[in-house]
């Protein structure tokens, strides 16, 4: 993950605040504001407040009860005042009952619900949080395993927006000593599988700094002989293509994409 020392950074939904603490201690950005979705009492119950207290002691602004999808929870920050907004391993919380599941996922499913969260993050950060005079960067770090790998994160989130997908870079957790990837609902430490940081900006790729540009890997351009749902191919024959299109994985990914496109049309 590339971090420039002169950047003003906002972290979103940082579980136990261990990522923000590692970012502050080992990368020393010009300014850091850390946020968590939970209220303070829930943070203390789930994870303890060690990192919260460390950040406060180092004059870092920490906001609790911060929801990136609800600007009404942002009253303590200045709009258009950040260079980079980071969302680490986002995932919608689990449901406490079948009734809650039915209310939130009726007709759409959890896959679409997660994509909604990431899309709203990118739109709100780009339009309301990033300084138009700065580099205007959004980072999402995710995993190349289910369910994360089923969101088509590189291609699906910014349809019909003015946001540009700029590429990806490996996320090496060893560069953030003390960071623990938390389960979204419980006091659990999630396995440190390979992480990937995806990068977006309202600015085009041509305006990236050279230092960041050198870190980014561009997505492959898929031709007509590839599957755009699964990012697979090229296929060597029509039989190869048909075998893929009848596979369980393809049918699942196609269903996710069609649900997502339908959801965008009704948004």
Helix content: 25-40%
Percent of residues in beta strands: 5-15%
In whole angstroms, the N-to-C terminal distance is 32 Å
Low-confidence stretches: none
The biggest beta sheet reads: 7 strands, mixed
Pairing-aware structural class of the strands and helices? alpha/beta
Number of strands: 7
The neighbouring-strand order within the major sheet is: 3-2-1-4-5-7-6
Global morphology: globular
Overall mean pLDDT stands at: 90
Return Rg in Å: 19 Å
What does this structure look like?
The chain is an alpha/beta fold. 32% of the residues lie in helices and 15% in strands. The protein has eight helices and seven strands, in the order βαβααββααβββααα. Helix 1 links the parallel strand 1 and strand 2. The longest helix is centred in the middle third of the chain and has 21 residues. The two termini are 32 Å apart. The relative contact order is 0.14. The mean pLDDT is 90.
Task: Describe this structure in a few short sentences.
With 267 residues, the protein is α/β, with parallel strands linked by helices. It is built from 8 helices and 7 strands, in the order βαβααββααβββααα.
Could you outline the blueprint of secondary structure elements for this entry?
Layout: E1 8-12, H1 18-27, E2 31-35, H2 40-46, H3 50-57, E3 61-63, E4 84-88, H4 98-105, H5 109-129, E5 137-143, E6 164-171, E7 195-201, H6 210-213, H7 238-245, H8 248-266
Parallel strand pairs: 1-2, 1-4, 2-3, 4-5
Antiparallel strand pairs: 5-7, 6-7
Helix pairs in contact: 1-3, 5-8
């Amino acid at each position: 993950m590339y971090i420039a020392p002169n950047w003003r950074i906002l972290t979103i939904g940082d579980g136990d605040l261990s990522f923000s603490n590692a970012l502050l201690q080992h990368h020393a950005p010009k300014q850091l504001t850390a946020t968590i979705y939970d209220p303070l009492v829930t943070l203390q119950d789930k994870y303890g407040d060690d990192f919260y207290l460390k950040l406060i002691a180092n004059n870092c602004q920490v906001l609790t009860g911060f929801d990136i999808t609800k600007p009404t929870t942002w009253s303590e920050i200045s709009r258009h005042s950040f260079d980079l907004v980071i969302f680490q391993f986002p995932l919608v919380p689990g449901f406490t009952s079948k009734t809650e599941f039915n209310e939130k996922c009726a007709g759409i499913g959890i896959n679409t619900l997660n994509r909604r969260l990431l899309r709203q993050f990118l739109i709100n950060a780009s339009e309301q949080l990033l300084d138009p005079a700065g580099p205007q960067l959004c980072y999402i770090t995710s995993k190349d395993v289910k369910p994360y790998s089923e969101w088509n994160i590189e291609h699906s989130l910014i349809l019909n927006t003015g946001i540009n997908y700029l590429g990806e870079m490996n996320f090496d957790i060893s560069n953030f000593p003390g960071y623990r990837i938390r389960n979204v609902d419980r006091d659990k430490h999630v396995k440190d599988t390979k992480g990937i940081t995806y990068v977006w900006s309202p600015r085009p790729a041509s305006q990236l700094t050279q230092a960041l540009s050198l870190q980014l890997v561009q997505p492959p351009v898929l031709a007509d002989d590839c599957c755009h749902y699964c990012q697979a191919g090229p296929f060597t024959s029509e039989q190869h293509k048909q075998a893929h299109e009848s596979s369980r994985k393809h049918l699942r990914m196609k269903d996710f994409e069609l649900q997502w496109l339908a959801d965008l049309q009704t948004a």
